């Protein structure tokens, strides 16, 4: 056998046929001169045959490209499909190269033999190769492979057109809308599924490959906005997170058909005076307040909560949508409601006008905030007035005129709220004093206003919502109604929240506090200074509040409870995941618009700031008035709490980046 291999020879290099000049056999290896000019030992199993044509070693060095070209030329004429058809009826299914040559060629040469092997070794359709033997594939296999190859060819042609078009869309002007050709609509639809359903697809993989290092979801949203699939008015952070800002036509139609049954409700009547206190722009009103004056200096305070359960049945289509959304989302760019606007801002919202279903919590209090009695009932309420925090603060401070009855009610509510807060503080309640900013955007221009830190009307509304939630939690606990309680263990250290906000003391106080959590077991809420606490008071805005409302109403009506403890825990788990996503979106959106505010109107201006942490290569500082924390590149490690004056040099909202310069250290 070893004598067969000498001179010009063909050998295999993977699936490639190569030419070599065999110089001799040494230790069961063919010592061979190859095309690169090197001499290597080839395994004998890789050497196919030696050519009958006698050429010298020098001829091989000079002419091997021509030999290879001749083989390639002959290989190009080989029709493997025809060979496969010739062999398909043969009983034998495995053939040697020589046998295949005998079938295919009427006259054979070494170059034809090499050409056939070259084609066979690279074939994936008709034959399977193992060393120098070839197995013929059956018809079903061949048809499947040919179909797959045709599909791949068409896909490559499609992508060759798609790539430049996608690139042109991404490079188009922000204000333009690119029409989607019919042949690319599937691609665009799949990118929509990436955003809304978080489904990967050929489209998402193609775009990911096309854009390189850019974030995939960010580019997909940009693409969908530029092709008109997503409104350019949508908050980008919301869309990137896959949260739909709108509702389907089916859900909108369902909301239009909703109505409630007033049977069994206490109709409070048109003369019952009650009012809401919210921001001027609020349209999804969950709660209203009322004051009744009793004998012996007692006050019956009504906290009336929109009864969303009167409209939305458990497991209905709208209910499942709300469960998925988990909460309404409040962003600088607008509100994304948990329910369609027809319900959230009209039918269920406690706005003045027509009678609305409510769940009314009553607390009879003394003038110093002592609780004498409580009562909960299903009611029918007609709201008298929609008031704003700004207006109510003005009335309470004597800066706004008001009807005598309203002023009296507000004074009573404010005084009682002060007493209730003091009682909770005596039990360890913590009052947070971090400033809040309201971000408004008009025609792309950002404005920042600080929410009044000591707003009396905000404090009184918050306090009576806390009272209602505490009463609801006690009612569930005392009547053994399965519920989700918000609990917080007492801190191991004393929590010292300063009266005047400073970021360092605030951070230290927060770090001392243990995290609150939801549980089916009633227990203390240390941060609120309460024996038990749940959340009922925002059923338009929070799905967990709607669940608690359903539980309580079912008990009041003597019906079977709506949820078991296991069901509550299952929905809680889903909601917590969603709420985490929502918090991230809100933080990202707020930060983006704060950075945009700096970019639009504060470049070159100075801010007072406080060092709150040390970072690699710099300091983390909080800007006064914005509670925005930014990196300041500074080599010197200043003490935490050091007061500085910094200048805004450069801002990139897309990257959440601002370049600051240190103007002065104020504490030196």
What does this entry look like structurally?
It comes from Lentisphaera araneosa HTCC2155. The protein is of the alpha+beta class and 668 residues long. It folds into 4 domains: 2-137, no CATH class; 141-232, no CATH class; 249-589, no CATH class; 602-665, OB fold (Dihydrolipoamide Acetyltransferase, E2P), CATH 2.40.50.140. Helix content is 39%, strand content 24%. It contains 18 helices and 26 strands. The strands form 8 sheets. A 5-stranded antiparallel sheet has the order 4-3-2-1-5. It has a 5-stranded mixed sheet with strand order 9-16-15-12-11, with helices on one face. A 5-stranded antiparallel sheet has the order 24-23-22-25-26. A hairpin with a 2-residue loop joins strand 2 and strand 3 (29-34). The N and C termini lie far apart (94 Å).
Number of strands: 26
Portion of residues within helices: 25-40%
Gross morphology: elongated
Give the number of helices: 18
Major sheet attributes: 5 strands, antiparallel
For the termini, the CA-CA separation is 94 Å
Characterize the quaternary organization of these chains. Answer: single chain
Work out the count of structural domains. 4
Q: What fraction strand?
A: 15-25%
**Structural class, judged by helices and strands?**
alpha+beta
| Radius of gyration based on Cα positions | 39 Å
Q: Regions with pLDDT < 50 over 5+ consecutive residues?
A: none
């Amino acid at each position: 056998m070893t004598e067969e291999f000498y001179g010009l020879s063909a050998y295999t290099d993977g699936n490639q046929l190569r030419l070599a000049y065999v110089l001799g056999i040494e230790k069961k290896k063919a010592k061979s001169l190859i095309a690169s000019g090197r001499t290597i030992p080839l395994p004998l199993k890789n050497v196919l045959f030696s050519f009958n044509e006698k050429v010298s070693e020098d001829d091989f060095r000079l002419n091997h490209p021509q030999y290879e070209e001749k083989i390639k030329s002959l290989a190009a004429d080989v029709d493997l499909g025809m060979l496969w058809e010739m062999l398909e009826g043969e009983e034998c299914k495995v053939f040697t190269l020589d046998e295949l040559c005998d079938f295919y060629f009427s006259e054979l040469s070494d170059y034809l033999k090499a050409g056939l092997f070259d084609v066979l070794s690279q074939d994936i359709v008709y034959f399977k190769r193992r060393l120098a033997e070839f197995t013929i594939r059956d018809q079903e296999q061949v048809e499947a492979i040919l179909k797959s190859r045709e599909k791949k060819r068409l896909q490559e042609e499609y992508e060759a057109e798609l790539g430049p078009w996608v690139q042109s869309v991404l490079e188009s002007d922000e204000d333009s809308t690119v029409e989607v050709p019919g042949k690319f609509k599937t691609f665009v639809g799949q990118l929509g599924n990436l955003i809304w359903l978080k489904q990967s697809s050929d489209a998402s993989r193609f775009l990911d490959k096309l854009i390189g290092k850019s974030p995939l979801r960010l580019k997909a949203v940009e693409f969908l906005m530029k092709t008109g699939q997503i409104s350019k008015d949508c908050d980008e952070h919301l869309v990137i997170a896959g949260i739909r800002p709108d509702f389907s036509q089916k859900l909108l139609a369902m909301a239009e058909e909703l109505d409630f049954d007033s049977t069994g409700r206490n109709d409070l009547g048109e003369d019952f005076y009650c009012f809401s206190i919210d921001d001027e722009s609020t349209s999804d009103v969950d709660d209203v307040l009322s004051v009744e004056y009793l004998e012996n200096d007692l006050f019956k305070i009504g906290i009336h909560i929109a009864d969303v359960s009167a409209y939305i049945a458990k497991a209905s289509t709208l209910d499942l949508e709300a469960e998925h959304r988990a909460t309404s989302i409040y962003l600088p760019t607008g509100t994304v409601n948990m329910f369609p606007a027809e319900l959230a801002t009209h039918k269920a919202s406690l706005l003045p006008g027509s009678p609305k279903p409510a769940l009314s919590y009553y607390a009879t209090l003394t003038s110093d905030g002592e609780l004498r009695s409580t009562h909960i009932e299903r009611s029918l309420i007609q709201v008298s007035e929609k008031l704003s925090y700004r207006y109510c603060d003005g009335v309470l401070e004597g800066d706004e005129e008001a009807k005598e009855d309203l002023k009296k009610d507000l004074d009573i509510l404010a005084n009682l709220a002060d007493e209730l807060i003091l009682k909770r503080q005596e039990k360890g309640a913590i009052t947070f004093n971090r400033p809040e900013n309201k971000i408004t955007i008009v025609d792309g221009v950002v404005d920042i206003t600080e929410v009044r830190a000591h707003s009396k009307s905000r404090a009184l509304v918050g306090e009576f919502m806390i009272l209602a939630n505490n009463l609801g939690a006690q009612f569930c606990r005392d009547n053994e109604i399965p519920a989700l309680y918000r609990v917080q263990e007492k801190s191991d250290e004393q929590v010292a929240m300063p009266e005047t906000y400073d970021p360092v003391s605030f951070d230290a106080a927060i770090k001392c506090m243990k995290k609150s959590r939801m549980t089916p077991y009633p227990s203390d809420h240390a941060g609120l200074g309460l024996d038990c606490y749940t959340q009922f008071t925002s059923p338009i805005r929070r799905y967990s509040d709607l669940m608690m409302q359903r539980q309580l109403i079912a008990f009041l009506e003597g019906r079977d409870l709506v949820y078991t403890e296991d069901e509550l825990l299952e929905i809680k788990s889903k909601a917590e995941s969603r709420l985490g996503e929502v918090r991230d979106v809100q933080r990202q959106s707020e930060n983006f618009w704060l950075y945009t505010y700096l970019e639009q109107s504060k470049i070159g201006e100075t801010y007072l700031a406080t060092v709150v942490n040390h970072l690699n290569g710099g300091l983390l500082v909080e800007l006064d008035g914005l509670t925005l924390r930014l990196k300041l590149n500074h080599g010197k490690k200043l003490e935490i709490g050091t007061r500085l004056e910094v200048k805004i040099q450069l801002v990139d909202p897309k990257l959440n980046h601002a370049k600051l310069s240190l103007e002065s250290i104020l504490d030196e």
